[in-house]
Amino acid sequence: MAALYPNHIPITKLSRILLAGSSAVAALRNPYRDDMVAVCSETTACNALEHMRGRMLDDETGRRILNEQPRVNSSTVDLKLLRALPESTLGRQYVNMLNKYNITPDSRRDVKFVDDPELAFVLQRYRETHDFNHLLLGQRTNLRGEVAVKWFEAIQTFLPMCWMAAVGGTTRLSRKRRLRLLQQDLPWIIPTAKSCQFFMNIYFEERLDQDIDDLRDEMKIYLPHS
């Protein structure tokens, strides 16, 4: 099979199975191995990506995103402009998070092992909008916050890697933090993920100057009272 898009690496079914198994083991042993997390997500995601694409095709904005295939990276996001936005906007909150955790819009790996260009974009889009979910859900990037976001994403996308990260991450939390997740976070995260708007149908690039609370209200994401 010839390459179907830039960075695409065609592989056989056997290679896909072997990569999926080995990367899953490596990712569970060390969740910070983003290379293994990426490989596992790409080699196990086919059915989930079809589901995600279907939800996008059922939505006007989702269809436009699929057609235009926007990217979130340093060449498409004007960080200087975002720093000038009011503090309450999605864009200002986004650039504040990048600065706080010393990350960039280019930190997400390119998809390589998905044998369909449009589905490859769907997975790439998921990766590049992940940070917006942290902001919308008011979750930090520590382990507890990451696990909470993964539960949200797993329920909305069905991605196997999200389920692995959600369940595996829960078991890796300290007893105190695990109890907080189970007693405080999940009773809010789970129904929110089921009832709120599908995050893949949000054209985040067009919402950067929007008040983040207004976007939450529009998506029906209601943060719990602190």
Automatic annotation (TrEMBL):
* Topology term for the membrane: Peripheral membrane protein
Supply the InterPro entries for this chain: Coq4, Coq4_euk
The name this protein goes by in its record: Ubiquinone biosynthesis protein COQ4 homolog, mitochondrial
The gene for this chain is: LOC100184934
Q: Which HAMAP family match?
A: Coq4
Catalysed reaction equations from the record: a 4-hydroxy-3-methoxy-5-(all-trans-polyprenyl)benzoate + H(+) = a 2-methoxy-6-(all-trans-polyprenyl)phenol + CO2
Q: What is its EC number?
A: 4.1.1.130
Which purpose does this protein serve, as stated in its record? Lyase that catalyzes the C1-decarboxylation of 4-hydroxy-3-methoxy-5-(all-trans-polyprenyl)benzoic acid into 2-methoxy-6-(all-trans-polyprenyl)phenol during ubiquinone biosynthesis.
Q: Oligomeric state and partners?
A: Component of a multi-subunit COQ enzyme complex.
Where is the major localization of this protein?
Answer: mitochondrion
One GO cellular component from the entry? mitochondrion
Which Pfam families would you find in this protein's record? Coq4 (PF05019)
Name the species this protein comes from: Ciona intestinalis
Query: What family does this belong to?
Result: Belongs to the COQ4 family.
Q: Which residues bind Zn(2+)?
A: 130-131, 134, 146
